[in-house]
Write a structure and sequence with these properties.
By secondary structure, the chain is of the alpha/beta class. 29% of the residues lie in helices and 26% in strands. It binds zinc ion (2 copies). This is Zn-dependent alcohol dehydrogenase.
Amino acid sequence: MRTPINAAVLEQPGRPLRMTEVLLDEPAEHEVVVRPEHVGLCHSDLHYVKGALSIELPAVLGHEAVGVVEHVGRAVTRVAPGDRVVATVTPSCGICPSCSRGRPTQCTRVDRIRYRERPKLVTRQGVPVEVLGGLGAFAEAFLAGEGALAKITPDVPSSAACLLGCCITTGFGAAVHGAKITAEDTVAVIGCGGVGIAAVQGARIAGARRIVAIDAVGEKLGLARTFGATDVLLAGSDPEATVRQLKELVTGGVSHAIEAVGRAQTAELAFAILAPTGTATVLGLMPEGERLSIPADALVYGDRILRGAYMGANRFLSDVEMFTDHYRSGRLDLDSMVTAELPFGQINEGFAAMADPATIRIVLGLRAAPNRPSTLDRISQKGAA
Ligand SMILES: [Zn+2]
Ligand SMILES: [Zn+2]
């Protein structure tokens, strides 16, 4: 028996999502039905809405979610109805060689974990509906494997907790699990959107002695300072000038650069601003087929490292506990990262507001009236002014 639920469906890129009824399957053995409380709007979702990334259509996007477990498949043991959970797009099996080596984002059995005989969602007419990242959280309910869900305590408000699902996992994770930053390090974070701000906070909590925020938009630099950047650098159109300015700020270059944009030029910039023995960690997703060009001399003579950190090289199931403790102690500021909270029905307005440089994260409330006044009006008024 399928359950009718309302979902925001992507039918055609470049067009608004359509709020409509779809039918959700029952959970398979290891699956869980989650009723989302809050879901964040991520730039990856926006790329699919605009058509910059492609997905089978129709589709339900949404992958940064916190919610309550409604019911569970008969083999589920880790969570129970009533538990509060955060979801991830990087589930892991726990027993493959990558998982055993502590690299769950490189789990080799993801396809097997995600395999199911029937589509999770279908339209009223029986047409299969794709779900982004195995979730599809822009809906009144979604199905996830139990390995994609981390329990979270009730003291983290859901408007903030949803950020742990993608933005914090990726940015904080890249700083702590990818770059493995320590108190000795000088760090540059390129791109100060939500993920970049999360990387700045990760670097601060890891104890970095300098954190240089780099962005092409001045307003974002001001925000980055409030989250722990010690220095800021406005990137102009000439990357060589940016490299020069960075090396004046931090003599000789930084020991770690984190790229949170997802462009070849900014990934190359991350490598160019490294001191000898430095590491550039690239987390931004790039279009298929994109290539990077780096000077071989700088790589070999300088013992430099260029590495990726897909989804922050996270260890999701234990990371959520770590994030919660840092939030509780006041070190990890999630609340100030939520620029606006909107009702689910205003999802398209939310995507439009992401263009405003003052936006860090916009979250949708799915269950009740927002527990804070919407700040979207303020943003759009400012944008119009
Ligand atoms: Zn995301
Ligand atoms: Zn695995």
